[in-house]
Amino acid sequence: MGSARGAGSRLLGFLSDAVARGATEALRSLNLGALAGRPIEEIFLGMSDYVCPDGGSIDEGIAREAFIETIADLAAAGITELDGLSADQVQTVFELYATNAIEARLCNDIGMKIIILPADSREAAGVQAQLKDFILRAVSDALTTTSTAVAALTPDRVLQFVGGVYEQAFEILRTMGEGEAEGE
Fold first, then answer.
1. What is the pLDDT of residues 46-59, one digit of tens each?
2. Which InterPro entries match (predicted)?
3. Which CA distances in Å does 23 have to 17, 18, 90, 97?
4. pLDDT band at 39, cuts 50/70/90?
């Protein structure tokens, strides 16, 4: 999950800069000043190449997919403005991104048959819903339990954080898959 973790770190860095210096200055530092004052979805779309540099690997595709999903999730999370972003909103954006990245990676693992889901489509959909809920709670809990303020997340801590939640979710899915195989 190297690309996803790196993208999470760049996203957090930008958001921290936007909170500290304002959205306009943060965008100018990325040569994206023309996006200042635009809706947050447009700003994030314009930042896609910064957060998730284009590449050809699966890992880079997962990072980009997760970032696009995060953009789609912003309005539902009530985050519509980049100016005046609160610490809680920054944490929410990071939680959304980390959740989407971990879920996308696990879906890739399922597609590569590293993890096997139930054959019944309704059961598989149920597992997917449980997985997303677990990941979202685990991401939120990990930030809270470790008393890690988003502002204090360094690139190394982001790498550890996202990797740790991914490993937990992977293990849960693997265990569920083994239980399904034994039940046949």
1. 999 999 887 778 88
2. QatB
3. 8, 4, 13, 19
4. very high
Residue with tokens 């790498």: 159
Q: Which helix (H) or strand (E) holds 92?
A: helix 87-111
Tokens (6 digits) for 59: 């890992």
Q: Which two tokens stand for residue 64?
A: 């980009």
Q: Quick one: tokens of 14? A: 């930008």
Distances in whole angstroms, Cα of residue 74 to Cα of each of 41, 49, 63, 67, 96: 8, 18, 17, 11, 8
Kindly tell me the sign of the dihedral angle through the C-alpha atoms of 168, 62, 141, 158.
positive
- The residue assigned the tokens 């096997």 is 116
Predicted local distance difference test score (pLDDT) of residue 128: 74
Selection from 163, 60, 70, 51 nearest residue 108 by Cα: 60
Sequence spans of domains, the chain: 2-183
Residue of 10, 19, 6, 118 whose CA lies nearest to 59 = 6
Residue type, 139: V
Q: Is the pLDDT of residue 180 over 60?
A: no
